[in-house]
Specification:
By secondary structure, this protein is an alpha/beta fold. The protein is 42% helix and 20% strand. The protein has helices spanning 17-32, 53-60, 68-86, 103-112, 153-163, 181-199, and strands spanning 3-8, 37-42, 89-95, 119-122, 125-128, 134-140, 168-174. Strands 2-1-3-6-7 form a five-stranded parallel β-sheet, sandwiched between helices. Strands 4-5 form a two-stranded antiparallel ribbon. Helix 1 links the parallel strand 1 (3-8) and strand 2. Helix 1 (17-32) runs parallel beside helix 6 and helix 2 packs across helix 3 (68-86). It starts with a strand and ends with a helix. The relative contact order is 0.17.
Length: 200
């Protein structure tokens, strides 16, 4: 049995196009991989607090010196990390907002990137500690940006996942969704074909 973690980053929760594509992938994956356990992390329904100085200092403070409030902050981060560590495959629904990733996803990343926990610094550079996982990212955009300087998402997400050890990353794009009904239909149809290929 395997575990799949689905992360919805859309402001519209499971109604967002990226979330719906992620859901289709999960359904197709389950059809081909019986017994898969699915865990959903919806960043609209349950937003991760944005990182501030107090939360960051909670991570840096020695365990025996943490206040009760700091312990709660670390425990919350630990729970997010445990969820990610237990997953064999990570599926991210990733809309583009103003040329970047949703701030809620950045907040999530900030809480799962912990030195000595999900990565460590070595003489040869940083080493990710969450190895052996696959990630599939469903990137939805109103316009067409893949392969252009305006696509700041792809390398950022790929680099972050690689930083914590997840290097097998596949991006599925559905672009031009706001250009016209025909463009939207074509993009979603192509994404569905890719879903069927990846889930088999």
């Amino acid at each position: 049995m395997s575990t799949l973690l689905k992360i919805n980053a859309s402001l519209f929760s499971n109604q967002g196009q990226s979330s719906q594509l992620a859901d289709r992938f999960v359904a197709a994956w389950q059809a081909h991989h019986a017994g898969t356990t699915v865990v959903t992390r919806d960043l609209a329904a349950e937003p991760v607090p944005h990182l501030d100085g107090a939360r960051f200092m909670s991570f840096l403070t020695k365990p025996e010196e943490r206040s009760a409030e700091q312990q709660a902050v670390v425990a919350y981060s630990d729970a997010l990390i445990a969820e990610l560590r237990e997953a064999d495959i990570v599926v991210i629904g990733l809309p583009m907002y103003n040329f970047g990733i949703p701030s809620t996803l950045k907040a999530y990343f900030d809480h799962v990137a912990r030195a000595g926990v999900t990565f460590r610094y070595t003489a040869d550079g940083p080493e990710g500690l969450l190895k052996g996982k696959k990630a599939v990212v469903f990137a939805t955009r109103g316009g067409r940006y893949a392969g252009t300087p305006l696509d700041t998402q792809t390398e950022f997400v790929r680099n972050f996942l690689g930083f914590v050890g997840i290097t097998d990353v596949e991006f599925v794009y559905a672009e031009g969704l706001a250009i016209s009904p025909d463009a939207k239909t074509a993009a979603l149809t192509q994404a569905q074909r890719t879903i069927e290929r990846l889930a088999a």
